[in-house]
Amino acid sequence: MGEPLLEVRDLHVTFHTEDGVVRAVNGVSFDVSEGETLGIVGESGSGKSVTMMSVMRLILDPNAQFTGEVIYKGRDLMKLSKRTIREVRGAEIAMIFQDPMTSLNPVYRVGWQIAEQIRAHEQVSAHAARVRAIELLASVGIPNPEQRVDDYPHQFSGGMRQRVMIALALSCSPSLLIADEPTTALDVTIQAQILRLIKKLREEFGSAIVLITHDMGVVADVADRVAVMYAGRLVEQGTKHEIFNDPQHPYTWGLLGSIARLDGPRPRRLATIPGTPPSLLSLPDGCAFAQRCACRFERCFTELPPLLSRDTLLSRDPMPNGHLDACHLTSAEKRAHRAASLAKERT
Amino acid sequence: MTVLLRASNVQKYFPVGRQMLGRASGGRSSGPRVRAVDDVSIEVRTGETLGLVGESGCGKSTLGRCLVRLHTLTSGSVSFEGHDISGLSRRELRPLRREMQMVFQDPYASLNPRKRVGTIIAGPLRIHRQGNRTQVRDRVAELLELVGLSPEHVNRYPHEFSGGQRQRIGVARALALRPKLIIADEPVSALDVSIRAQVINLFDDLQDELGLTYIFIAHDLGVVRHVSDRIAVMYLGKIVEIAPAEDLLARPVHPYTEALLSAVPVPDPELSARREQIVLEGDVPSPVEPPAGCRFAPRCRYATEICAAEEPPLVPHRGPGHLAACHHPLGPPQMTTA
Questions:
Q1: Which of A75, A333, B27, B60, CA to CA, is 20 to 30 A from A309?
Q2: Which residues pair with A64 in a beta bridge?
Q3: Coil, strand or helix at B90
């Protein structure tokens, strides 16, 4: 993979509410390299969307507080003025949201919306922008783009609307595309179409992609690397093959085990993670997963496990993009627990 | 196995457009109508779980509601334990409601936020005048324990619970009258994976314990596969294939089933890269004017002239339990997800 395009360092996001301080993101650090696809997985409330929305500086809540650095191409996005960040947004970093109906403006024609974005970032004529909009609609596989460019969002089906959103996101050839649950609202056969389109466009445009999803199947299909989030922290990250074939964190094991899958033999019972995620209003001192973890011991309740490479003992300088996990267990203990939990899943 | 519920040629049409407003046409007018469920015949056997899958708009929820007469049928009939229930009035239906209950998708919308959990679960008991105050209280406590909640939760309000716990409350309410049949309409799709697995296991346990019959409606094929004995696949108001669960997965006969199975992403990078995915072109056609002949024909890669001309009947393929409606049934498996 190429140079790091985006470096997020120790990002914290808190919201002050009537009930107290919600600690949505608690010290998240990761890199996205040029041209790679990073999948961020986690359950609702794990902070995956808030993390990426903060990177885009799209959280406008006056009660939100941010600390940490978001370095994009050498500039700290957190320090940019509102005006400068607008030049980055859309042109350099674009975003696709879950629900294409609420993220397109219902009272403007789709072609107008695409042209508006192009003209906000580039000095081109209205006509040239419209021609580009038609080309973009064609490139995302919308039939009859010359006619559809003048249609309103409600005249498109859900899958077609998501294609329009993708065309809009790609209109300024961004280096980084953030896709927040882009296929969650779609049916499986339409999801397959959109995922195929994202893979095709990734080759054509060469953008790096951060794909936020709760679906491990989607990650296995599209991502190069995977980051797993739990209660506002990264608990594990690594290449797709490392995460699926050699997961290190007990939460990742639970996540993989609790999927009702179509492949392989049907287990008699699904493996479950007992309990529910902790409240972000009162996170425990130690590991946030400890209360639900089958492998916990005293240290898990008192000390926050750092996100480390398993090979740290061998080299003092862990690779930033290596296989990292945040768990107090030693490698040998993990292997033993993992073998035991797999044996249990099979029965 | 005995048949608990039998639907014969069930149709449910909804009027669209102007006729929807103004005078109630009762679905009998000649204007455009959404053919949500079109000529569906199906049997549900005592003690089994029948999975109903399909994409949004295929009519799976409408069919589910027709089967328990939450909808009035446009035509066709439904019989429960041998008695025709399709013509019964609301009042006549009431005693039957004790036998069949529903669990809904959204645990946030299906529980009254202003009522305490105890009141919600006791609702069916009060409506059907089951037991006195102490008996109701004891039964509610028993139900809470049955679904894995603490009886102390009886005085709390729905908002004090997480999504998974709320769905357990919905299940407890459905079980209050000791029904024979539960229709669960997307009961886990609003839940996160780890919570989803807990609720699926709860459905499993309750079936073993209470001998329930389930109709399990969902769009997630993995979930349906896990809970179902048999699976029916719907497309545009029709059942296109129905078979024992593992048989359907390993040896789909209908090209739509094949495409649907292949579209589900598998959480295994190697398999995901290796397998050949069938990506269907286009969208599901409008159920107001469904295509003539086989409704799947315009998107089907095996379609020929006969498919557009003649509607294929739902007939046995490869054994009596495996039915499919296709002119070009798929041969023995070459590639599946398994």
A1: A75
A2: A15
A3: helix
B80, amino acid identity: F
Fill in the amino acid letter for B146.
L
Nearest CA in chain A to B188: A260
| 3-state secondary structure (DSSP) of residue A44 | coil
SS (H, E, C) A281-338: CCCCCCCCCHHHCCCCCHHHHHCCCCCEECCCCCCCCCCCCCCEECCCCCHHHHHHHH
Which of B:36-55 have CB within 8 Å of A? 55
CB contact under 8 A, B269 and A216: no
Cβ contact A187–B55 (<8 Å): yes
Nearest CA in chain B to A275: B195
How close does chain A come to B277, measured CA to CA in Å?
A: 8
DSSP character for B30? Answer: S
Cβ distance A258 to A271 under 8 Å? Answer: yes
**A28 falls within a domain:** yes
- Which residues does chain A have within 8 Å of residue B219's beta carbon, measured at their own beta carbons? 187-188
Q: How confident is the model at residue A347 (pLDDT cuts 50, 70, 90)?
A: low
> How close does chain A come to B325, measured CA to CA in Å?
20
Q: Please tell me which residue of chain B has the smallest CA distance to A278.
A: B162
Has residue A330 been placed in a domain?
A: yes
For residue A274, the chain B residues in CB contact (below 8 A) are 198
Residue A343 located in a structural domain: yes
We report the CATH number of the domain holding residue A243 as 3.40.50.300
Are B302 and B255 in contact, with CB atoms under 8 Å apart? yes
Residue of A nearest to B259 (CA): A189
Element (H or E) spanning B244, and its range?
strand B238-244
State if pTM tops 0.90: no
Question: Measured between CB atoms, does B268 come within 8 Å of chain A?
Answer: yes
Among A155, A114, A158, A116, which residue's Cα sits nearest to residue A137? A114
Q: What range does the domain containing A344 cover?
A: 1-92+219-347
Helix, strand or coil, per DSSP, at residue B195: helix
Taking phi over 0 as left and psi of -120 to 50 as alpha, with beta for the rest, A224 belongs to alpha
The DSSP code for B190 is: T
Give, as one character, the DSSP assignment of residue A89. B
Q: Return phi, psi of residue B242, to 5°.
A: -145, 135
Angstroms from A192 CA to nearest CA on chain B:
5
Number of domains in chain A: 1
Query: Is a pLDDT exceeding 90 seen at residue A340?
Result: no
For the four alpha carbons of A128, A130, A132 and A134, in that order, the dihedral sign comes to negative
Q: What is the pLDDT of residue B287?
A: 87
Judge whether B325 and B239 are in contact, CB under 8 Å.
yes
Note whether residue A119 is domain-resident: no
Which residues 65-124 on chain B approach chain A with CB closer than 8 angstroms? Answer: none
Q: A260, B162: Cβ pair inside 8 Å?
A: no
| Predicted complex ipTM | 0.85
Let me know: does B277 contact B262? Beta carbons within 8 Å: yes
